[in-house]
Design a protein that fits this description.
Largest sheet: 7 strands, mixed
Number of strands: 9
CATH superfamily of the largest domain: Vaccinia Virus protein VP39
Shape: elongated
Order of helices and strands: HHHHHHHHHHEEEHEHEEHHHEHEE
Strand content: 5-15%
CATH architecture of the largest domain: 3-Layer(aba) Sandwich
Number of domains: 2
Helix content: 40-55%
CATH topology of the largest domain: Rossmann fold
């Protein structure tokens, strides 16, 4: 018999491999489970995704073969089993092995069950020396090299280790929000009665935070579906692409442009990102980010304040965007770095329009 937790964890990881998002998949598939089973499903999914290249190296170490030579369902089952056996002290080893073998029989070639069984029965908890720092820190080699150049060895290590832990969330009135994310809205210096445009608002937590001040809000996003939860609090919603000319005739006192980005500041929350990214992704959205800032500045009232933010740690999506729009003009910029600052990583730039 296969436990509901492991069955759901396997299905989520399989769909993540196909391009799905772990948080949304777990929300849907683990919701019917008992609390204890849902917690184990979350632990396995996020543990496997956070440690993926390390688990692949362990699979090779215990099997003597590259994990990439097996089919994807088998690779997922090996990662799941290795994570439970090496990282979770509360899991009985026989349960992790037996259920991985049963899942292999049901979801892959039957011969894979023998491989899964043979590899997992060799696993022990003795300390092993990983072959290199990217494997030790659970980062793709190219991203480790990039961060090493940008942040240095000590800070890169701190960022990588922070990405192996779930980030802290703090309760606000009616919703939970990442600690780092809560530092962005205060930079707008909102005052009662001001007009506020949230350009990339979904899923709406920063809009909700802004409404703690009595302001006039319009929330926008490319995806109207992702804006819908804000209907319950009576906020005007507009579907638009902020990289295109904005449809508003009025000017706004305050604008937040929380731009789409690579999300490298959120790897603890969205660990699959680090295995999907390529070096080219950091400039892929740069032109859209530049245009969003330009359109936001056009919509800003004289004397108004615009905050540009991303959950990216990358210069290409942050300082380079500011430089492309404003040249060498002095701008108040700040980066929150996981492992140094609590919560997710963010970049912010505070821009004011002269009267």
């Amino acid at each position: 018999m296969i436990s509901p937790a492991r069955r759901v964890a396997f299905e989520v990881l399989r769909r993540v491999h196909g391009g799905g998002h772990s948080d949304a998949l777990l929300f849907d598939l683990a919701r019917p489970l008992a609390v204890r089973d849902a917690a184990l499903a979350h632990e396995i999914v996020y543990g496997v995704l956070r440690h993926q290249n390390q688990l692949d190296w362990l699979a090779q170490h215990f099997s003597g073969r590259q994990i990439l030579t097996v089919d994807e369902p088998t690779a997922i089952l090996l990662r799941m089993g290795l994570y439970q056996l090496r990282y979770l002290s509360r899991i009985p080893p026989h349960a992790a092995v037996m259920e991985a073998v049963e899942l292999a029989k049901r979801s892959s070639k039957r011969a894979a069950a023998g491989l899964v069984n043979a590899v997992l029965r060799k696993v022990h908890k003795k300390e092993l020396r990983f072959p290199d720092l990217p494997t030790e820190l659970c980062l793709p080699e190219w991203l480790y090299t990039k961060w090493l150049k940008q942040f240095g060895a000590k800070q890169t290590r701190a960022i990588a280790l922070a990405a192996l832990q779930p980030p802290e969330k703090v309760n606000r009135a009616g919703f939970r929000m990442d600690t780092g994310a809560q530092t962005i809205v205060p930079l707008l210096d909102l005052k009662a009665g001001q007009s506020f445009l949230d350009l990339c608002a979904a899923p709406g937590n920063k809009t909700r935070q802004a409404l703690e001040t009595e302001i006039k809000v319009i929330a926008c996003d490319r995806s109207f579906k992702r804006l819908l939860p804000l209907q319950q609090i009576g906020v005007p919603l507009v579907q638009l692409d902020a990289a295109l000319p904005l449809p508003f005739k009025m000017k706004f006192d305050r604008i937040l442009a929380d731009a789409p980005c690579s999300g490298t500041g959120t790897l603890g929350r969205n660990p699959e990102i680090k295995w999907r990214l390529t070096p080219e992704d950091f400039t892929r959205q740069q032109e859209r980010q530049i245009q969003i800032v330009k359109n936001a500045m056009d919509a800003l009232a004289p004397g108004g304040t615009l905050v540009y933010s991303t959950c990216s740690l990358e210069i290409e999506e942050n300082e380079d965007v500011m430089r492309a729009v404003f040249g060498d003009a002095p701008i108040a910029m700040h980066r929150r770095i996981p492992g140094t600052d609590p919560g997710d990583g963010f970049f912010t730039a505070v821009l004011r329009k002269n009267t």
